[in-house]
Amino acid sequence: MLFDDKKNFGPRVGLAYRLRQNTVVRASFGVFYDNWAGVTQNTQGLTGNWPTSLVNTASNLNNNLSVNPLPNTTAQNPFPTLGALPPPTPFDQQNWFIDPHEKQPYSLQWNFGVQEQLNQSTVLTVNYVGSGSRRLVLGGIYNTALTPGPGDPSQRSPFPYITPTYYDRTWGRSNYNALQVSLDKKLSNGLAYLVSYTWSKAIDIGDSGWYGLEGFSVQNPYAFNNDRSVAGFDLPQLLSVSLLYELPVGPGKRFNPTNRFLSHIVGNWQPNLIASFYSGVPYNLSVDGDIANTGNSGYERPNYLGGNANLANPTPLQWFNTSVFAVPAPFTYGNSGRFILRSDGTANVDLSIFRIFPIRESKSLEFRAEMFNAFNTPVYAAPNGDISTSTFGQVTSTANQARQIQMALKLRF
């Protein structure tokens, strides 16, 4: 049973004031509530919890249609064995549970900015944008041992007779602050562009992601405030540039060759560009097993021994200095923080060129050639952060695709 929350008050206010003919100041504030229903529905435990029967499933039914295009699987006995009966108590089951008094997450969002019209087609915008999110879903495995130590961890847990299990509460919080600058030129004289730059920081206490990140990013579920750090999606710097340019060559343009054939060949071309450059994403370091002996697994981080973990010239075979980390001593937590290292930054350029070939007054043929990741620049994925493995600190894949080229013809009529 989940209790109602009838105090979700969401005020919003905004204002705009023109300081002078070409300058406007804008500010706003609002409270916004999360309607991510999947989080709530997945943690109510509608099926599979005691005392309901176990869930019987069958997968890959009738999937080999190339051999037999007709269905060949029929309904089966839903209670084939006594194993479908519920266990005598719920205390040996591990499942997802939620605080019945959970609150709906919300975010306080605000911004203040100045917009200046530089000319008839170009606008410069500078904004400060911030948010503070509260009552975020903070997951993890609970009823583990309250403290690390030797012996049976269940004897150090709040309820020794209950198996450690997933339990979600709306105790998380985060904040975001950013400087956002954009220079926007609308199409005039054959040129349009948009340049955007963001300098920001996002911080939370372990609720960066969907289930997986939530569980693995907090070492001690009873002291989650100790794991306050940059969020798993934090990107300190991001620059994007998009550009469209109609070459001033051809009939009706600034430069029109006197030779009609040459004018037809070199005219009406339009090159385009989209470029993105941004910081690498944070990643966690981990240690296999239950070193602290709390009855959990997958939570432990290594010890940081001191020194610079970043390398001046990282390579896929050694992305960071692995010698400054070590496996913690038995019955202790690692002292490394959350998300202390970052993966490779992204530099991507997409290019395209369009050309319209007039046929008649109402008909034309458009040619397009597009290159994605035009310079074939690799972006390395996060390295292996598990100190228990032989590939610790090594990158084994890329986070982007190799250059792709595509061409198309379109008839307009």
Question: Describe it for me?
Answer:
- It is a single chain.
- The protein has about 425 residues and is mostly beta strands.
- The chain has one domain.
- Helices cover about 5% and strands about 40% of the residues.
- It has 3 helices and 20 strands.
- Strands 1, 2, 3, 4, 5, 6, 7, 8, 9, 10, 11, 18, 19 and 20 form a 14-stranded mixed β-sheet that branches. Strands 12-17 form a two-stranded antiparallel ribbon.
- The longest helix has 7 residues, at about 35-45.
- The model has no long low-confidence stretch (mean pLDDT about 85).
Brief overview, please?
The chain is built from three helices and 20 strands. The chain has 413 residues and is mostly beta strands.
The quaternary state of the protein chains shown equals single chain
Count of helix runs: 3
Mean pLDDT: 86
Write down the domain tally: 1
Keywords:
14-stranded mixed β-sheet, two-stranded antiparallel ribbon, elongated, 5% helix, mainly beta, 413 residues
Topology readout:
Elements (H helix, E strand, L loop, with lengths): L11 E9 L2 E11 L3 H7 L52 E3 L7 E12 L4 E17 L2 E2 L22 E24 L2 E14 L7 H5 L12 E2 L6 E9 L14 H7 L2 E10 L3 E2 L19 E2 L5 E6 L2 E3 L4 E2 L14 E2 L3 E15 L2 E10 L31 E9 L1
Parallel strand pairs: 3-7
Antiparallel strand pairs: 1-2, 2-4, 4-5, 5-7, 6-7, 7-8, 8-9, 8-10, 10-11, 11-18, 12-17, 13-16, 14-15, 18-19, 19-20
